[in-house]
Design brief:
CATH class: Alpha Beta
Number of strands: 7
Helix content: 25-40%
Shape: globular
Largest sheet: 7 strands, mixed
CATH architecture: Alpha-Beta Complex
Distance between the termini: 33 Å
């Protein structure tokens, strides 16, 4: 099997110590079932709960596990970008480390990827979040759709499959991970959605999804709208 079939699972981590062993065990089971070469790239965002020690242990015991450790807390977007840069494959899979995304959905998403699409997005049709987080998400989605309509049901689902070269070429800014579908679409990616399982959080507490974060995202939306309006695209007719 050629290296183009290999995929890299990018896992930003901030204080998820009690979820990591279970996460990797589930991921290994799902990834091995694909029959493809794969790797897990953990990106520790300067955790303070001992997550990095668990990651080091996983990397030491499993050839598929690698990691990047930040010197200071830089946020989820920076962690995803560091994972894109570190990935040793042509396909990147992004997911959260809190066990709400189900690794068992990855094989089906990979089967669809490449069939007239450069990105596959998970759609959490049945959310397992707290009431506050669900309401915050609905408000954020309504505002986002009014300003930048990416044409997908669930842009906030972290479980995504993308072409690695396209992901690396995207403009980078704080909170850019929230706008990956519209950024990829602007870059020429064809997108498909797949309904995926969504679970209650494992151990730890949520770091994202509160109302103040949803409202703060309006500023990001204005910037994304500007980026899209200034995008330069072209089609080559002929070259020598």
């Amino acid at each position: 099997m050629s290296n183009k079939d290999k995929f890299s699972v990018i896992l930003p981590v901030f204080n998820e110590r009690d979820n990591l062993n279970t996460l990797f065990a589930e991921l290994k089971r799902a990834a091995d079932a694909t029959g493809r070469p794969w790797e897990a790239v953990f990106v520790d965002d300067c955790s303070t709960d001992g997550s990095l020690e668990i990651i080091r242990s996983l990397a030491g015991a499993n050839p598929e596990a690698r990691y990047v450790a930040f010197a200071e807390n830089r946020g989820q977007s920076a962690a995803f970008c560091a994972g894109f840069d570190a990935a040793d494959s042509g396909i990147v899979v992004t997911m959260d480390a809190d066990l709400q995304n189900d690794p068992a959905d990855i094989p089906a998403m990979l089967d669809i990827f490449g069939r007239e699409c450069e990105m596959v997005i998970g759609w959490r049709a049945r959310r397992r979040d707290t009431f506050v987080k669900r309401i915050s998400s609905r408000i954020a989605n309504a505002i986002r759709d009014a300003i930048v309509d990416d044409g997908v049901h669930d842009t906030g689902c972290s479980l995504k499959v993308m072409r690695a070269d396209m992901a690396r070429a995207l403009p980078r800014f704080k909170n850019m991970h929230r706008y990956l579908p519209i950024l990829m679409k602007t870059a020429g990616a064809r997108i498909r959605e797949v309904k995926v399982n969504h679970r209650e959080r494992g151990a730890g507490v949520s770091k994202y999804g509160t109302l103040d974060r949803a409202l703060a995202g309006i500023w990001d939306l204005i910037g994304v709208k500007w980026l899209i309006s200034r995008h330069i695209g072209y089609t080559v007719k002929e070259k020598k």
